[in-house]
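Reviewer 2 asked us to include a model.

Predict the structure of this chain.
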Amino acid sequence: MRRLVDARGSYCPGPLTELIKTYRNAELGDEIELLATDPAAKSDVSAWAKKSGNELVELKDEQGYFKIVVKVVRKGR
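Predicted model (structure tokens):
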């Protein structure tokens, strides 16, 4: 299942916080698509994915925002 988190207009740590809230309710194999305007979201989510053991599937600059997709491959806190 793909879950959408629209955090456009939110600034650090908002996008990552919203992604983590969705992650806590996600199942293994789910993908979380984060839309964010805060440039820090790219590095924050990349670092979180690596630290948490989840997979960064896509990190793309769209027109005026970033699209970041993380696949849930590991559950934790």
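The radius of gyration is 11 Å. The beta strands are 2-7, 31-36, 55-61, 66-71. We have added this to the supplementary material.
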